[in-house]
């Protein structure tokens, strides 16, 4: 009887201690410390794992982390697995030089996800992820990125993954911030067929094997700049697409800016301008900064957008063909393009409307002043 009572007492103390650990953030620097929280279903606070000698991180029971999961600089780590986790405030997984696999099969929501500088990483499973404010994949060995259930994302940044061949986000409808897909050496295919809106800049740059951009058939609004540089031969957008920033297109052969003006921007209140002279682009990339420098144009002339008031005939995508002639200098891009090439700059026509309005007000004032003078003289 005394033995049974003692065992129950020990179990209760251990359970209480484990429960208290689950109610605060945990920092693990010793492999033995992981066992203390393996029974937690919910962790309140950050879970930080750094500088340990552990090879595998497995939390079989953890379902929710009310904080950020940080796994950084664990040199011996080869795999991370959270088979039941469905919610966390964020994932930050970086500089784990032997890490090969990341497994979050039940994860639905996470505010921010950043997976970076894991040079051996070749597998990610987040197939149930639906919404995140930020998804970044930088410098991995992933061959195929599939986020089959993702619906909305804030920032989408897929940068410098030398083994990446394909990107598939078949259900993604909205990117609320920038979209950047660049410096992926052998990327051949981007499949995002249901994307309707990009709330910031769209940048697709220096993917030398990428020849076609035909999967953006639903894309109707780009609220920032559209920047496409590379050996692109075919590019498709909705005919009714609106672009509210600048348009810079540098394909393998000249794109026709007039075609863009008349076919794509029918419903957009913009003018399209193309450079008359040689334009030079020199852009230095930083994987953590998406504020890329834009082309400066010399000797441009304004073209009226006569297509604004035309009625859109159908919803078929516009295709702009080209032929491969480009060379690439990764990290720093220096390209020269002729005047009829794909450098297009969009400017709003609001300034012209304002000028007309001011002229009208001035004319009204002159007429009123002259009428007052006539009445005074009489």
UniProtKB/TrEMBL annotation:
Residues 308-318 have a biased composition (Basic and acidic residues). Residues 308-327 are annotated as: Disordered. SUPFAM superfamilies: L domain-like (SSF52058). InterPro entries: Rcpt_L-dom, Rcpt_L-dom_sf. Transmembrane segments: none annotated. Coiled coil: none annotated. Keywords: Signal. The keyword Oxidoreductase does not apply. Residues 1-18 form the signal peptide. It holds the Pfam family Recep_L_domain. Residues 39-126 form the Receptor L-domain domain. This is Cell wall protein ecm33.
């Amino acid at each position: 009887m005394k033995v049974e009572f003692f065992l129950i007492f020990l179990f209760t103390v251990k359970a209480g201690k484990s429960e208290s650990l689950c109610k605060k953030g945990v920092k693990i620097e010793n492999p033995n410390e992981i066992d203390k929280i393996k029974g937690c279903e919910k962790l309140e606070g950050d879970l930080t794992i750094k500088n340990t000698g552990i090879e595998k991180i497995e939390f079989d029971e953890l379902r929710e982390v009310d904080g950020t999961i940080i796994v950084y600089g664990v040199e011996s780590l080869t795999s991370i697995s959270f088979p039941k986790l469905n919610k966390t405030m964020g994932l930050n997984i970086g500089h784990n030089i032997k890490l090969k696999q990341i497994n979050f099969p039940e994860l639905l929501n996470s505010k921010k996800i950043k997976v970076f500088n894991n040079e051996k990483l070749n597998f990610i499973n987040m197939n149930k992820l639906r919404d995140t404010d930020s998804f970044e994949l930088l410098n991995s060995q992933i061959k195929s990125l599939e986020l089959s259930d993702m619906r909305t994302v804030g920032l989408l940044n897929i940068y410098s993954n030398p083994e990446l061949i394909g990107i598939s986000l078949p259900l993604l409808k909205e990117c609320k911030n920038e979209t950047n897909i660049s410096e992926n050496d052998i990327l051949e295919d981007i499949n995002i067929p249901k994307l309707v809106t990009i709330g910031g800049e769209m940048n697709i740059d220096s993917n030398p094997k990428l020849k076609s951009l035909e999967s953006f058939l639903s894309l109707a609004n780009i609220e920032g700049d559209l920047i496409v540089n590379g050996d692109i031969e075919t590019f498709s957008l909705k005919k009714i697409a609106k672009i509210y920033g600048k348009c810079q297109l540098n394909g393998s052969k000249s794109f026709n800016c007039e075609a863009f003006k008349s076919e794509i921007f029918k419903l957009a209140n913009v003018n399209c301008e193309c450079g008359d002279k040689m334009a030079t682009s020199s852009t230095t990339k930083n994987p953590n900064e998406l504020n890329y420098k834009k082309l400066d144009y010399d000797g441009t002339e304004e073209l009226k957008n006569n297509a604004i008031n035309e009625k859109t005939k159908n919803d078929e995508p516009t295709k702009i063909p080209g032929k491969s002639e480009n060379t690439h200098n990764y990290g720093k891009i220096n390209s020269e393009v002729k005047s009829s090439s794909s450098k297009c700059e969009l400017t709003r026509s609001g300034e012209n409307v304002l000028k007309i309005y001011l002229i009208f007000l001035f004319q009204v004032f002159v007429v009123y002043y002259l009428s007052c003078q006539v009445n005074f003289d009489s």
